[in-house]
Amino acid sequence: MEIALNLVIFIASFVAIWFGSGLIIKSVDKISRKLRVSSFAISFFLLGILTSIPEISLSLAALSEGKPEIFVGSLIGGIIVIFFFIIPIFAVLGNGIKLTNKIESTKLIYAFIVLLTPLIAVMDKRITVTEGIFIIILAGVLFFTVEKNKGVLDGDNEMLHLKRYSLHDLLKILLGIGLIFGASNLIVDKTIYFGTLLSVPAFFISLIVLSLGTNIPEISLVFRAIKDKKKDVAFGNYLGSGTVNVVIFAVMTLMSGGEVLTVNNFWKTLVIAVVGFATFYHFTKSKHDISRQEGAILLLVYAVFLLVEGLMFL
């Protein structure tokens, strides 16, 4: 009975995140249409941050519980999920997709390098404060170089028109954030519970399961687009979300007050990610789209990731 109750709470918490994320995304979409900011700026900066609220809340909850390995697994797994599950599954189910909000090839390569930094940082099974600061600097440079000519830092755009939103939309955003934070605390508690019950490291559960759960906002955007029969993917949102994951990873390392130790050095995951990002870049560098067949290949990268990580704990 106790196991069933905890499972129900665990699942209900993800449903709460789904609902809360929906409130945030719909309200932000309404507000963003009234702001004079470029579409890339909205997707990379605004949606990138707000769709990462589950990761932020989960990481804070994990830190407060003294379980930093949970946020490490969730954030690293989340980056893999975004580029090798969410975008590819959209390509497969939507019979191909087009990536809007394109950026230059050199900046895209740099972005992928930034996304790989958490994996590089844990190669020695620990993340230091110095590494955290270095990662934040790299992510800051990425944001500056990408956004410099895209809107947020463009002086020609009047970014904030503070009267162009409704109190109703803001209240929905706050309600969504509240739901997500409450659900995230429950998810961390139940992750620890099931990890102990199944003799599986909480780190592994966070890497595989929580990384999917905290990306519910991004997943919901996919199904919303499929429902509306849209093939355009706001690439800035996914790139922004992945970058925010990197920043959260670094900030949580600093907030931990010292080194964060992990049970995995991720070298196999790093190899998979490098191959995956190289493949992703090859598919998109010239034609800026991903076909159904290419999406299936990228999904294979995710399948290999699951297989490799799963075999480690069998």
UniProtKB/TrEMBL annotation:
GO terms for biological process: intracellular calcium ion homeostasis. It is a multi-pass membrane protein. Signal peptide: none annotated. Keywords: Membrane, Transmembrane, Transmembrane helix. It is found in: Membrane. It comes from the Bacteria. InterPro entries: K/Na/Ca-exchanger, NaCa_Exmemb, NCX_ion-bd_dom_sf. Pfam families: Na_Ca_ex (PF01699). Its main location: membrane. The chain crosses the membrane at residues 6-25, 37-58, 70-93, 105-123, 129-146, 167-186, 192-212, 233-254, 266-283, 295-313. Residues 7-142, 172-308 form the Sodium/calcium exchanger membrane region domain. The keyword Nucleotide-binding does not apply. GO terms for cellular component: plasma membrane. One of its GO terms (molecular function) is calcium channel activity. This is Sodium/calcium exchanger membrane region domain-containing protein.
